[in-house]
């Protein structure tokens, strides 16, 4: 564990810059997790691309973030478009 730093008495009402940064990062992470909870994460093309950086840990997304994870191969998306296997109204923007 890193050593605990003490503040001078006249600085008790002042938050050190490194602590401000850590509090801000923690707050942003909390907002991100809350925003993501209940949403879905969709991986497209994971079978074809094989890029390690694009592969998300599904257990983390499901258990920690509370997200539903789905994976779709882009070949299937193209096949559905070519064969008309989708609801047209779902794709109207």
Describe this structure in words.
This protein has 93 residues and is α+β, with helices and mostly antiparallel strands. Helices cover 43% and strands 11% of the residues. It has four helices and two strands. It has helices at residues 17-36, 46-49, 58-63, 74-83; strands at 40-44, 68-72. A two-stranded parallel ribbon has the order 1-2. The N and C termini lie far apart (53 Å). The mean pLDDT is 76.
User: How do the helices and strands follow one another from N- to C-terminus?
Assistant: HEHHEH
What's the β-strand tally? 2
Q: Average pLDDT across residues?
A: 76
Global shape: elongated
Number of helices: 4
Proportion of beta-strand residues: 5-15%
Helix content: 40-55%
The biggest beta sheet is recorded as: 2 strands, parallel
Structural class: alpha+beta
**Regions with pLDDT < 50 over 5+ consecutive residues?**
none
The largest sheet has its strands arranged as 1-2
What is the rounded Rg? 22 Å
Q: Give the CA-CA distance, first to last residue.
A: 53 Å
List its traits.
elongated; alpha+beta; 93 residues; two-stranded parallel ribbon; 43% helix; 11% strand
Task: Summarize the model shown.
The protein is α+β, with helices and mostly antiparallel strands.
What layout of secondary structure does this protein have?
Blueprint: H1 17-36, E1 40-44, H2 46-49, H3 58-63, E2 68-72, H4 74-83
Parallel strand pairs: 1-2
């Amino acid at each position: 564990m890193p050593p605990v730093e003490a503040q001078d008495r006249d600085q008790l009402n002042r938050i050190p810059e490194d602590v401000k940064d850590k509090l801000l990062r923690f707050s942003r992470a909390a907002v991100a997790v809350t925003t993501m909870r209940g949403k879905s994460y969709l991986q497209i093309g994971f079978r074809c691309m094989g890029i390690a950086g694009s592969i998300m840990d599904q257990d983390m997304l499901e258990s920690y973030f509370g997200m539903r994870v789905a994976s779709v191969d882009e070949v299937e998306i193209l096949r559905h478009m070519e064969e008309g296997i989708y609801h047209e109204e779902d794709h109207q923007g």
